[in-house]
Amino acid sequence: MNVEEFKASDKMPLVVVLDDVRSMYNVGSVFRTADAFRVEAIYLCGITACPPHPEIHKTALGAEDTVAWQHFDTTMEAIAHLRSAGYTVLSIEQCEGSTLLQHLDLRPMGQRFAIVLGNEVKGVKQEVVNASDACIEIPQYGTKHSLNVSTTAGVLIWECARQLLI
């Protein structure tokens, strides 16, 4: 599939929201995964860098040219935009009341989804968590209690694809 064919193709009804992601390599990696699963768009919020940039390109390998993206000054602005368009907003964060990934069922939640991924150190901002429809948590069994944001994106995008496309 070339760039024009990708842009014209049907997309998975999923927007990936990056909440103050500081590493451009992580941003590029999310673009590459989003391309692989034909994600509708990526919203780059706050300090999250935007294409074009050599560090983003190094891991995106051109996916920054295929996947639609938009920048918002704040993640709350992105959420307001998504809500007005009828999206269900899911933050990926460990918090009280979060749904473990293996129990996630998108069918009763709606037709269009957004997943919010947070800063590499601080995670998703509390105000964003509070504004979300739900929080999803990836269970972890080792000594570390978080995954790299690009790894988290891959796991969540795959699960959304499994439920929405397969």
Q: Report the helical percentage.
A: 25-40%
**What does the largest sheet look like?**
7 strands, parallel
Helical run tally:
6
Judging from the principal axes of the Cα atoms, what is the shape? globular
Rg is 15 Å
Strand content: 15-25%
Number of DSSP strand runs: 7
The arrangement of helices and strands along the chain is HEHEHEHEEEHEH
Low-pLDDT ranges: none
Describe the structure.
With 166 residues, this protein is an alpha/beta fold. Helices cover 35% and strands 22% of the residues. It has 6 helices and 7 strands; from the N terminus they run αβαβαβαβββαβα. Strands 3-2-1-6-4-7-5 form a 7-stranded parallel beta sheet, sandwiched between helices. β2, α3 and β3 form a beta-alpha-beta unit. α2 runs parallel beside α6. The longest helix is centred in the C-terminal third of the chain and has 16 residues. It is globular and about 40 Å long.
